[in-house]
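Notes from hallway chat w/ T.B., transcribed later so I don't forget. T.B. wanted the structure written out for a chain they're using in a teaching module, and asked if we could keep both sequence and structure tokens in one place. Agreed to drop them here.
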Amino acid sequence: MSRRLIVVLTAFFLVAELAHAASWPRIRPFDRTYNFGRSLDMYLSLPIQTVTGKLAYILECASPENARARAESFHYTREFECRLALPGATQAPDTQLLAGGSSRGGSLSQTGFNWNQLNGDCYRYPDYGGQRVFHLRNLRLIITVSNVRFTPEVPAGQAYKRSIQGLTLHVQGSYDSAALSEFPVPSRYEEPKPLVQEQPAGLLDCKRPVLKPSSAGVR
């Protein structure tokens, strides 16, 4: 591919992103904290409004054990899952903007939390630990989990696992003029691997964050 063609394509995509950005609403900043004592209580639905008071998005976070979340048709991949949706959306990607609908979209594994991602060194692992930061549609969204309480260890095959019993959730949102992507850009870090390959529900190797072989185009 010639250098001139690369420049033309780059300019085309930048113009397209700027056109999208002009149509995305400017939201009212929000900063909320939720305390959940049991996994059965883990459900929140937070309307995100524009500066003019119009409903722009709906942020939901929930445990699969919560009956209301099951009724709301969450597609769980983790013990505690968050999704950002357009009002009235019934189909992807509009039902889960944090993962996106293309190869440029974020990973579903970054939208939810498992016990082993919040344990020990894994809590501080970038993009897969206790804090997840998303940049999209002129929005900066920060989801932070703290004060995590785990169940006692239970046998899981030849290993032992735990589950999330309770936690504190802090969600923050603000206008971000630099967030020009329609969906979040994938992490430049590899997802932590199990300490024992045959035990994916067990402890993870989080001693050192691992960069992906090529981080071009990712945050």
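Follow-up for T.B.: The chain is about 10% helix and 30% strand. Might be a good example for the class.
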